[in-house]
Amino acid sequence: MKRVPADPSGLEQAAGALARGGIVSFPTDTAYALAASPEDPTALAGIYRMKGRPAQMPLIVLAATREALADWAVLPQEWDQLARAFWPGPLTLVLPAGPRAFAPIATPERTVGVRIPAHPIALALLARTGPLATTSANRSGASSPRSADEVESQIGRDLDLALLVDGGPTLHGADSTVLSLVGRPRILRAGALTAEQLGIVG
């Protein structure tokens, strides 16, 4: 595993590693992420193995723009204003999967979690790579890492981690709020945004 700074050279190295089927960790606004190309089943399986993540727990898709997410998820028109208000930001939306959804991310109900992170390093990398399949860079059941040192302490010795982009501490001390908009809106995981902030009642 190689640790690189979050400068243009480091981001180009990270994008290259991802294009070659590698797994990369980088900071988002909420936690350091593990990421791989959503088209590479071997790399995706490596994320699950690295974390010890149960197979039934889906990954999510991170992207730099809503346009980049258009093929991955279908945002109901009535929730467009919510997405505009809280993206980029610490909100993961679970939506009906689009035509590019795939097995390790989409659940059997054909849904997918998507987010646009509010972190300049994450956005700069995603602009280079396009959407990535991601999850937090911790062992399953452990706390989400908020710094590169925390990533190293949990998974840094894993040879399947190609690069760790050191961008300093994350911006939030909490994970993203996961809100399902499939059927009745419901919060699946409490996080940086409250139900009141999101306007979700009940």
Helices and strands in order:
Blueprint: E1 2-5, H1 8-19, E2 23-27, E3 32-36, H2 41-51, E4 60-62, H3 66-69, H4 80-86, E5 91-96, E6 111-115, H5 120-129, E7 132-136, H6 148-155, E8 161-166, E9 177-180, E10 186-189, H7 195-198
Parallel strand pairs: 1-8, 2-8, 4-6, 5-9
Antiparallel strand pairs: 2-3, 3-7, 4-7, 5-6, 9-10
Helix pairs in contact: 1-5
What can you tell me about this protein's structure?
The chain has 202 residues and is of the alpha/beta class. The chain has a single domain, classed as DHBP synthase, CATH 3.90.870.10. The chain has helices spanning 8-19, 41-51, 66-69, 80-86, 120-129, 148-155, 195-198; strands at residues 2-5, 23-27, 32-36, 60-62, 91-96, 111-115, 132-136, 161-166, 177-180, 186-189. Strand 2 (23-27) and strand 3 (32-36) form a beta hairpin. Helix 1 (8-19) packs across helix 5 (120-129). The mean pLDDT is 93.
Helix run count: 7
Low-confidence runs (pLDDT<50, min 5 residues)?
Answer: none
The helix-and-strand class reads: alpha/beta
Q: Any idea of the CATH topology? A: DHBP synthase
Provide the domain count: 1
Find the count of extended strands (DSSP E, 2+ residues). Answer: 10
In helices, the fraction of residues equals: 25-40%
Order of helices and strands: EHEEHEHHEEHEHEEEH
